[in-house]
Each structure stands twice: as C-alpha cells, then as structure tokens.
Amino acid sequence: xxxxxxxxxxxxxxxxxxxxxxxxGIGKNAEKGDLALLYSEVPxxxxxxYTKNKVKAAHIAVTKDHxxxxxxQAIICNSGNANTCTPNGVEIAxxxxxxxxxALGIKAADVLPAATGVIGVPLEIAPFExxxxxxxxxxxxxxxxxxADAIRTTDTYIKECAVTFELNGKTCTIGGIAxxxxxxxxxxxxxxxxxxxxxxxxxxxxxxxxSDEILxxxxxxxxxxxxxxxxxxxxxxxxxAGNEEITEPGxxxxxxxxxxxxxxxxxxxxxxxxxxxxxxxxxxxxTGAPDKDGARKVAKSVICSSLFKxxxxxxxxxxxxxxxxxxxxxxxxxASNIDVSVCSATGTVEVCKGSASVPFDDDFATKVMSEKKVxxxxxxxxxxxxxxxxxxxxxxxxxxxxxxxxx
Amino acid sequence: xxxxxxxxxxxxxxxxxxxxxxxxGIGKNAEKGDLALLYSEVPxxxxxxYTKNKVKAAHIAVTKDHxxxxxxQAIICNSGNANTCTPNGVEIAxxxxxxxxxALGIKAADVLPAATGVIGVPLEIAPFExxxxxxxxxxxxxxxxxxADAIRTTDTYIKECAVTFELNGKTCTIGGIAxxxxxxxxxxxxxxxxxxxxxxxxxxxxxxxxSDEILxxxxxxxxxxxxxxxxxxxxxxxxxAGNEEITEPGxxxxxxxxxxxxxxxxxxxxxxxxxxxxxxxxxxxxTGAPDKDGARKVAKSVICSSLFKxxxxxxxxxxxxxxxxxxxxxxxxxASNIDVSVCSATGTVEVCKGSASVPFDDDFATKVMSEKKVxxxxxxxxxxxxxxxxxxxxxxxxxxxxxxxxx
Lengths: 407, 407
Description:
By secondary structure, chain A is α+β, with helices and mostly antiparallel strands.
C-alpha cells in the first residue's frame, strides 16, 4: 500500500488515542458538551502553533510552557469562554492541567489547555473540578465525535478527518478534529484543531511538519478576516504505529507530511465551508504566480473580499470583484494578463481572459455558482507557483449571528 | 478672521469653479445623472492621488499623463461604468478629454477623466459625445450638488464640504465632493473625490498637502476592506483668491493644510457613514500609541473588523472583538494595558481597563451604541501618538446590495 487513504474517524483514529466530551456548564447551551478531553495512552512528541494576535488567550502561555520539552499526553479544551482578557486566566488554565493530571495519573506538564468562546468573561474552576473526573472515566477510542462536538461554538457540524498510510510495513494513522465558524482569519494556527497520530517521529520534525503545513492549509482559511485570540493547532505523535522513528526529512517524512496535508486541508475546508452563516465553500486556486507566498496572498485576498463573498452568496459571477481583490493583494506581479474561471460540480465558465471581459452565458454561470462548493481558478501568467485558499460566502445569517452572539 | 469656517456648498464653493451633471445613459438609473463636469475658469495647479490596486481603471493612466505638468482645468467623471478591465478603456478616456476640450475651448491635456461603476463592461463614447456639449452649456457655480449626484453609485446621499479662511487678508475657500459606498478600503486615494480651491499655491505644495493629508483622512476609511480599482482624489487650486502664492511650508501652508484636513475628514466621514447598507458611522480614536503609523493601523483594524461591525449593527458593546482587532493590527505595542470606552451623543461607557473586563451597565451601553455615530476610544498606554479611522456597521442590507449589484 503506497497511497494515503482517507478513513472514518477523527482525533482518536490513530492507535492509543481516546477522547470524551461532556457538558460542564461553562457554555450556555446545555444541549451540547462544552468540555473535551483528549488522551494518548503514552506520552507523545508534540508540536503546536498559535495565533499571531498580540491579544492572546491565557491558555496559550500554559500550553507553550508545557510544550517546552516537546512532549504531551492530554489536551483539555472548553468552549463557551475564551479565557482571554481575564484577570486570572493563566492560573485557571494551569489548574485545569493539574485536575486532568490527577484524574489520569499523568504529569500536569504533559497536559495542554485550550479554550474558545466569549472574550473577557472570567472563567471559574468549579465546572472543571466537577466534570474532569467524569471525562476521564468516559475516555474512549470512539470519543472523537463527542470531543469535536464539545469544542464547537457556532459551528453547525463537527469537523473530523483521518487518513492511514504505511511506513516500513507498519500501518500509520493521522486523525484530527477542529472547530471554526467565526473570528476566523487564520494567521499561524487556526481556531482550534487537535491532531493525533501514532507515527513515530522526532519532536523537531513533528514541529517542522506542522509549521510548514499550516502555510498551505489552516493559514489559507478566512471566514471573516478576524484573526482570533485563541487559534491553536496541536499535533501529538505517540509512536504506537511501530514504524522506524522519522528523524530526518527523507521519504518517510515526506509521506507523513503528505498525509498530514490531507488531514489539515480537509479540516481547513470544513472550517471554511461551515463559516458563520455561510451557505457555500469558496475555494480560490491561483496558478502562474511569480512566488509561492504571492500565490498564497492572491488566493487569500480573493476569498477574503466582502464584495465577492456577497456576490457568491447571490450566485453572481461578478468577476470584476475578483480582479479587484487580486489587484490589491500584496504580491508583485504583472496584472495585465490574468485569466479567471469559475468552476463547480456543474461545470466551468471562463469569465475573464487577459484581464478583460469575455462573453459568457450568465445563466449558466449562475448555475455553476449555485453549487455548495465554488472554485475560482486564477492564472496570473507570470510564473510557476500556485496556492489554494478557502473561505465562504457572506450572508444575511452572518450578520444575524454576529449581531446577537453575546445575548 | 483666524479660524477656518465650514460653509455651505461643495466643489464650486471657491472662486471660479463651475460644475454640472446630467444623465448620459451610461448607468442604468435614469432617475439620476451619470456624468459630471467640473471646470475652473482658469487653469489651476493640480495634484492627484490614486488607488494602489494593481488592477487600475483606464482613466488613471490618462489622468496621470495629463497631470505631468501639474496643471488642470476640468474633470469629466461618469458613474455606471468603472472603465476598468476593458479593451479600449484608455482610448475612450482620452477621447472624453478631447470632447471636453472642444466644448470648453481649453486644452485636452488640462482635462482629467474619472469613472466609477461596474468593472469589465466596455464603455462606449457615444453617451459622452451626446452629453458633454449639454454639460458645458449647463456649467454653473451652483452645479456642485448636481455633479455630486451624477458621480453617486450606491451612495444614498451626495457628499459635499466647503470651508473658508483668510490668507494675507484674502478670503480663501476649499470645497469638495466625493462618492463612496462600496469597494471602499482606501489605500492611497479614495473612491472619487474632487476638491476645488481658489488658494494660490505652488504645484509642489498642493501635491505635498494632498499626499500628506490622505494619510489621516481618506486612507483611514473602510467600508468593506476592498480597495477599489478606481480610487482617485484630485485637488485643483486656481489661485483666484489672490493671496500671495504659497511656495514654502510656512504658516500659510499650515493653514491651507488645516483647511484641507477639515474638508477631507468631513468627506471621509460622509463616505464611511454612507457605507453600503450601513446604519451607523463608526469612528475609532486611538491614543497612547508608540508611533503614528501604528496608531493609524490599530484604528483602521477596529473599524475593519467584520465581527465588531456586526456587533455595532446590533448595538452590542462587544469589546472582546475590539481587543481582538487591536491585537491583530500590524503595530508593535504592549497589549497588556489597553483601555476601551464606547461613546456617542448619549454618553460614554468604559468597557475594558488594563486589557481586562470592567463591570458596566449593558442596557446603557446598548443605548450609547444605538446612536447614528459611535466612537470607540482606545488608549494603548504605550506612547504619545494618536489617529482616527472611520467605518460603518455591517448590516443585512450590505449583503443584499452586494448580492444583487449587477442585476
């Protein structure tokens, strides 16, 4: 087996991972869980990336501290409260890890805290004290969906992905969960995403793989241009697959990265496609760019344009707005020879050639734009590099959700 | 008289300026004009700034060319068609200037073309041929409002401002018009704004005054984060006030700049307050910043946040979103000691102190946020610099307008 196969499941798909979720009373919605616990039977080499927002959630300081040794065994994550801009946030996050350590009989320094929700409301420790023992009890290899549900805020569905592949004859798995929806303009990590793998890989390489990977997956997602204070992606590699440890960037490392890419892109698309109030997943694919970073910026600029996002909502192939968004991207290229097509399951329509209008069938274009996933293909004809970005349409519902979030 | 006084009127308020507007059949809405002509009885020293979007309207190339000598006498501007990404755009824009030159008996090189509207639809010359002679006939010192109306697209009201002041005992006037509404995220010029003044000032200094001025007025406006392909601000100074020519940056130059600032900020606020679909003018005032550019970026980041804009629509003092937007602004400052208040005609509410929550009366905060103009006061406590930025709330109507713009 040489290929990478997408399988059912999420963060517990790999060997030795368990998860659970429960309602602890932190969030207001008792219909769903608000506290998730992820656990690996053995400590794993772990890597994380965080938001670049200067206003950071308190949990990030604790997670960074606990990851100094590159090892983690559990993650505790609540929704309903961001634990950001609160007076005692770090203390609470630290205490959470101690409660988990006690319940699981592991080291507090191997527990990573995370949080998402409203900013500026002090977080109490009582819900954690009451619920962590129950979560520890409930931990199971089937708990991924429950955990993914517990970290949701305005997400409308849970986000899981898992893949298997072989390394030296051993079956390896990478699986993850994520939450998205609002305040999504990823610059570093994403909202929250937790990935578990049984691949044996060194601390250095798992961090390198994650840091490189986010550039073309999580960092290319935007729902609303707002980079959250809480963005965090964590990968825990517990080594239980039994492959020879990956210690340098050879073929095995490449395969690991390819598999990680599939999981990360899938979760990224799920985050974008479930953007607050959205009806469609919007993908931009830029080719012919002079450099990789420029390709990323042009793709992201298109999926971030409020004007084009509103046009996508209306299934309007308003390519002038695409050209406009390409033009203000921070990338140095020749803007005189741009081709643009819109594509979906219905078909493909070329709407702009050589940076000028071409005749096209407006009714068919509307049909193409009416699908649940719409891709904009952009060829800059000024180089060899390409990149993708993912966003969503801008809808009445987005305004409604965000005009009434706190109440 | 030492002060600068706001007076009635717009781009024709200064001596020697005339304007007219008419419906030429370029736009679809025959209820309003779509072609404006501005004229100065004598050629004036002129300065312009343009969009930084790499995809530029065709008229910009012609305007740049005609302004190489720093002199202009007339501006011809249509709405309903951006003359952008069209095969013959430059040719059409050039031809427009020749038609104006012929009708007015002036040099085509002293005529500046401008346009706004849909991107990518070829522009015909016939409407200009048919309407420019009529416009030349109609030119009048009372024509500013008519011209301001003709350049509107989705703007709901016309935008004019004028001020008078004295230089060496001579009454001087600066007046302008602008259009705004959508695709507004100014980075260099603005949508379209034309300013006429009778001040006698050298070409170099009128350009310097404009280039400096836009940093704290037009460039601090954002409706939707989309930098247009057509942004242009032009100032024509015809010298008819009879003051001693301003040739160096002394007291007279400072007074000219102060007066220009009042006009530019007033028009900027009118653009922001008439953002597509908006109900409120949102102002951010940042103080205590380590540097001027950083102060501007933080202010602009807050008025650009889709999440906070939606909260403003709902009159929700959701300060966590303000902190989030401050935190992702590209400015280096200490994020641990930020104070935030929301203010309006109703009063002031402190919502965040030392980057943490403070108790406040939610009902009163909602009343404060319900006014037509809402100001967010932000003190970073990390320096002496300050800046303003202007935006608007994000509403259902914005989505509606932009989901149906072309149809």
